[in-house]
Amino acid sequence: MLIAGDRLEVWGDPIAHSLSPRLHAAAYRALGLDWTYGRRQVSETSFEGEFAALGSAYRGLSLTMPLKGQAFAAAVTCNRHAELSGAVNTLLLTDDGPHGFNTDVAGIAADVAEQLPSPVERARIIGAGATATSALLALESLGVTRVEVAARRSEAVARLARLGAEIGVTVDDSGFDARPREAVALTIATLPGGAPIDAAVAEALARDGGVLYDVVYGHWPTALAQAWERHGGRAVAGIGMLVQQALRQVRVFVSGSDEESLVGEPEVLAAMRAAVTKV
User: Fold this and answer.
1) What are the helix (H) ranges across 104-153?
2) Which residues are catalytic?
3) Taking the CB of residue 141, how many other CB atoms lie within 10 A of it?
4) Is the pTM of this model over 0.90?
5) What's the order of all strands across the beta sheet hosting 58-63?
6) Domains of the chain
7) 135 and which of 47, 163, 188, 226 could share a cystine (Cβ 3.0–4.6 Å)?
């Protein structure tokens, strides 16, 4: 497998808000690599044409919404988390085709482990969309064996339950209302930052939800984070997940593996964290 070019981009729609260029630029400076990392607004309808037009100068792409499914379809191989989730957020462009990775899963797992170092057997996920799939896979990698999902759409929870059965995690549908729930030590919220949520539901979720890990980082504090704080609980924003998943993208672009640590990785990670704390 030959990896050539030195150009990288993040694609999505919208994309102007993305912190990926800031994170990746910091990483490549720390590594002494003269690579460029830009951003491009690419929609679902324009993806195929834009992707086909890429030249040999391109080394890889980061993909955000709504392109992760199309990137999965474009990849000739995928890592385990991409195969299980059907979502690719990283494409490595080589002479034998694009190789797909889902680094969101490992990014969530790494940051959650840092925030909550004690083992957890039971957890809760709020929401049942694409990010909830990555959250479920992250919990599986952390040793969680039972997950309660609080979501509006039971059919989406059923899809997560099927994935849970495949990976050995029991998934329970707890609905999306204000009734009492069994206490958990960790809740991962996967709702968009501006998503409305009934105050009574937020309070019920906060009452016995342990630590809240909210994947949102741009709209902070979220309504859920505020509910947790009213109950004296701890709420953590998802900026650490963003950094950790980007670190694994850098690994892919440097070595072709998301699991192989970089030379000087602690310094690279510190530089990436510093880049986003300045935002």
Assistant:
1) 104-115, 130-141
2) 68
3) 18
4) yes
5) 36-41, 7-12, 58-63, 90-94, 97-101, 77-78
6) 7-102+242-277 (3.40.50.10860), 106-237 (3.40.50.720)
7) 188
Chain centroid to Cα 205, Å, comes to 22
Residue 177 to residue 197: CA distance in whole angstroms: 10
Cα(158)–Cα(132) distance, integer angstroms: 12
Q: How confident is the model at residue 279 (pLDDT cuts 50, 70, 90)?
A: very low
- The residue written with tokens 């630590």 in the block is 211
Mean predicted lDDT score pLDDT of the chain: 94
Q: Give 100's contacts (C-beta < 8 A, 6+ positions apart).
A: 71, 72, 74, 75, 77, 78, 79, 82, 88, 90, 91, 92
Report whether 264 contacts 31 (CB < 8 A). Answer: yes
pLDDT category at 2 given cuts 50, 70, 90 is low
Quick one: tokens of 263? 């030379």
Helix (H) or strand (E) holding 25: helix 20-31
CB 149 within 8 A of CB 157: yes
Q: pLDDT of 172-200, one tens digit each?
A: 999 999 988 899 999 999 998 777 899 99
Among 202, 231, 199, 200, which Cα is nearest to 214's?
Answer: 202
